[in-house]
């Protein structure tokens, strides 16, 4: 039996951190008035960081008086001191450090390829410094946007912004937002804010980013054609991300039309025709409505998750989701569901189960019942789905179109003859060949805790302006 003496080993190695002797490397960090030298042991840094393993390779090092000399001006002394404590002792207490310093530690640990420390710091910011991150998301995004490994923190910021965009768009630092970050936000379908506000903010941001305009020339009444052309250069790739069909005729006339000089002609002609004739654009401005404009109010799924479902609904129009059935208010029984959902319309079903962390659901463009006869109802666009506790979506499209929906009175609903079906308070999920197999879907029998059904309602065409 092997005896383990890790604690003693760790204690002895940690003593080297403050040992004035036997070091072989001097690392200078910081810049200007904030510079400090650290005397360290290259062997330990090589063992604990792949970055230093490469940087201290024989062909790369610079020596002076037989001492390795290394500079890291982009890392501050206080952050590098934290990194060395972790490297030598395997311990680091972040409690008394300012949140901005911890953010710098995150960036530095990513650069130095210290994965364990990086993952810990990222989780710490999200879980322990939530309020600070929420109040400083522009600083956080600018710090981590280009770090591929920082997806978790980046997505946290995006989700927070999408759930409360007005706070983001009205913040003083919004106008300095990096163009790539702004673009990635405008691409999202889950911005829960009116489209006209997004347009207003895009114009304000564009003016601030355009030389010759900015705060000293923000009065549009003083602009010439050259000013509009310069603004169009700034906004050229952003304007196609605006969902113009979700802007009212009044707002279009008062707030969009005055800036037609900075809208590319190929887009302006389409949206002008839309507002004059009420015909939907067909080529350049056909993005799906944002979830904030689809108005689905669910007690089962989060608003930001809805966009993952909406993008698979194959319809090029603007629409709402109207609640037609909710189990906890209407009763969770087969006949009660059927009575509320006797519609030959597009219907979305969501199900939360007591004995699972998964959320299940399905979409049918043809409804669940054919009043003429029992049996199967055909559909090419039906699909079923599930979400796990981290909101990862597993999708399963119908594969046998003429067996998409099974209409039988024993079931509240039945996708594909048993792929996903409700029978009173039970939800049955099975692997049947009518829907595409997905091993992560979550098969079995579940007890329904809550169930919702929504009908998809197209918004009326606009009147001429």
TrEMBL record:
Protein name: BTB/POZ domain-containing protein
Organism: Glomus cerebriforme
Entries under InterPro entries matching the protein: BACK (IPR011705), BTB-POZ/Galectin-3-binding (IPR051481), BTB/POZ_dom (IPR000210), SKP1/BTB/POZ_sf (IPR011333), TLDc_dom (IPR006571)
Domain BTB: 23-96
Gene3D superfamilies: 1.25.40.420, Potassium Channel Kv1.1, Chain A
Superkingdom in the source lineage: Eukaryota
TLDc domain span: 299-438
Segments traversing the membrane: none
Pfam families: BACK, BTB, TLD
CDD domains: BTB_POZ_ZBTB_KLHL-like (cd18186)
């Amino acid at each position: 039996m092997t005896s383990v003496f890790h604690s003693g080993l760790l204690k002895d190695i940690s003593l080297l951190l403050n040992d004035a002797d036997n070091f072989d490397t001097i690392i200078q960090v910081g810049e200007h008035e904030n510079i400090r030298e650290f005397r360290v042991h290259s062997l330990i840094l090589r063992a604990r960081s792949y970055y230093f393993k490469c940087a201290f390779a024989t062909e790369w090092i610079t020596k002076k008086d037989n001492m390795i000399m290394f500079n890291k001006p982009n890392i501050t002394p206080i952050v590098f001191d934290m990194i060395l404590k972790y490297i030598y002792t395997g311990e680091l207490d972040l409690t008394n450090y300012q949140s901005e310093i911890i953010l710098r530690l995150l960036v530095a640990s990513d650069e130095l390829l210290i994965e364990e420390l990086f993952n810990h710091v990222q989780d710490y910011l999200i879980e322990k410094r939530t309020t600070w991150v929420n109040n400083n998301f522009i600083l956080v995004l600018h710090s981590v946007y280009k770090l591929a490994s920082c997806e978790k923190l980046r997505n946290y910021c995006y989700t927070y912004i999408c759930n409360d965009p007005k706070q983001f768009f009205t913040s003083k630092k919004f106008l300095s937002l990096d163009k790539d970050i702004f673009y990635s936000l405008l691409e999202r379908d889950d911005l829960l804010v009116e489209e006209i506000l997004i347009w207003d903010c895009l114009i304000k941001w564009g003016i601030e980013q355009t030389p010759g305009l900015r705060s000293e020339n923000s009065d549009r009444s003083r602009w010439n054609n050259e000013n509009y052309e310069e603004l169009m250069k700034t906004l050229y790739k952003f304007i196609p991300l605006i969902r113009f069909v979700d802007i009212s005729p009044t707002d279009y006339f008062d707030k969009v039309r005055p800036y037609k000089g900075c809208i590319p002609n190929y887009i302006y002609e389409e949206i002008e025709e839309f507002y004059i004739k009420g015909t939907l654009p067909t080529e350049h401005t056909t993005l799906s409505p944002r979830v904030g404009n689809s108005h689905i109010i669910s007690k089962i799924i989060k608003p930001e998750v809805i966009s993952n479902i909406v993008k698979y609904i194959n319809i090029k129009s603007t629409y709402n989701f109207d609640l037609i059935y909710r189990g906890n208010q209407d009763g969770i029984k087969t006949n009660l569901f059927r009575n509320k959902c006797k519609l030959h319309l597009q219907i979305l079903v969501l199900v939360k189960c007591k004995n699972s962390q998964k959320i299940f659901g399905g979409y049918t463009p043809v409804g669940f019942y054919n009043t003429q006869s029992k049996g199967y109802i055909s559909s090419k666009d039906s699909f079923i789905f599930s979400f796990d506790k981290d909101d990862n979506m597993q999708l399963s499209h119908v594969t046998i179109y003429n067996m998409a929906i099974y209409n039988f009175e024993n079931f509240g609903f039945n996708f594909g003859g048993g792929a996903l079906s409700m029978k009173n308070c039970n939800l049955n999920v099975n692997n049947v060949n009518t829907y595409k197999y997905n091993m992560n879907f979550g098969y079995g029998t579940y007890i329904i805790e809550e169930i919702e059904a929504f009908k998809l309602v197209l918004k009326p065409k606009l009147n001429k302006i």
